[in-house]
Amino acid sequence: MTISQSLCWKSSKELRYHVVSSLKYLGVNPTKIRSQNFLIDSNIIKYQIEKAGINQEDIVLEIGGGLASLTKCLAEKAKKVYCIELDKIFSKFLRDYFSTYNNVEIISGDALKIKWPSFSKSVSNLPYQISSPITFKLLEQSFQVAVLMYQKEFAERLFAEPGSKNYSRLSVMVKLKGKVKYLKTINEHSFYPQPKVKGALVEIKPLNRELNLDIIQFGEFVTSLFTLKGKTVRSALKINFKNTFSNLSEKEKEKLEKLPFIHRRIFSLTQNELIELYNEILRAGWYSSERR
Ligand code: SAM
């Protein structure tokens, strides 16, 4: 089969038929644990591919190939598609399905555990239960753009602003390394079996900027503060970094009171304010001593 031969899915009806009959043929019941809800709306697939601007130069990474719905269309546009699938039945299905394609490589395994090949773009309908770690893993790679389907509530956390209820470590850390754009909400009936929650398509572009920051250490710092996001900086530091802040000398107590944003609540701090606070704490020699 050559790349230009096929027309991907002619209609959503054809795609739905492919998904339902393949599941029947395989004799599998999709599992909720692995987010096995398959796209049955061919227009959404076209939209994803268009938004990612997939062309003959691209090496595409797809996480969670499932029943080939998206993989097939990617294979028709891209130079090469790497498709990672955890489920053994589906990865065998994918291998058989693409046996005559010379630009699709199926990788069986857990996308969180295996080393990813180099790629220029990623288009994936993600397994929702691994959204957070997979996003952080993605942001460690070098690529041009990713168009990803998340659960809508998760996507909202990516865009949450300081002071809002959804503002979290995720909102802070993802925007440190990537530019995120909300593309559109996807209804439950676009999937088979129909999930109980809506999806959302999000575009992520790496910022490729030099950050004068130890991201891992800063991430740990932000994570520990956000476990107490309703508290003030002062209380959160005293609770989370007991060893450092419980027995301060008078001089050090004064220094603590002079930290920036000390009376502000954690959830109100912007990304830049968190970085400023972190740098001040490092400068005072407090944070490194708390770590193992
Ligand atoms: N790409 C297909 C589509 O658009 O219809 C399937 C998407 S479905 C939401 C997610 C897929 O990811 C399932 O096939 C599931 O078996 C697979 N999956 C779940 N956890 C995974 C993991 N840790 N690594 C790789 N694939 C995984």
UniProtKB/TrEMBL annotation:
Gene Ontology molecular function: RNA binding; rRNA (adenine-N6,N6-)-dimethyltransferase activity
Pfam families, A to Z: RrnaAD
Compartments (UniProt record): Cytoplasm
EC numbers, comma separated: 2.1.1.-
Record's keyword terms, sorted: Cytoplasm, Methyltransferase, RNA-binding, rRNA processing, S-adenosyl-L-methionine, Transferase
Main location: cytoplasm
Entries under CDD domains matching the protein: AdoMet_MTases (cd02440)
Residue ranges constituting the Ribosomal RNA adenine methylase transferase N-terminal domain according to the UniProt record: 44-208
Matching NCBIfam families: ksgA
Protein name in UniProt: Probable ribosomal RNA small subunit methyltransferase A
Organism, as annotated: Candidatus Heimdallarchaeum endolithica
Gene behind the chain: rsmA
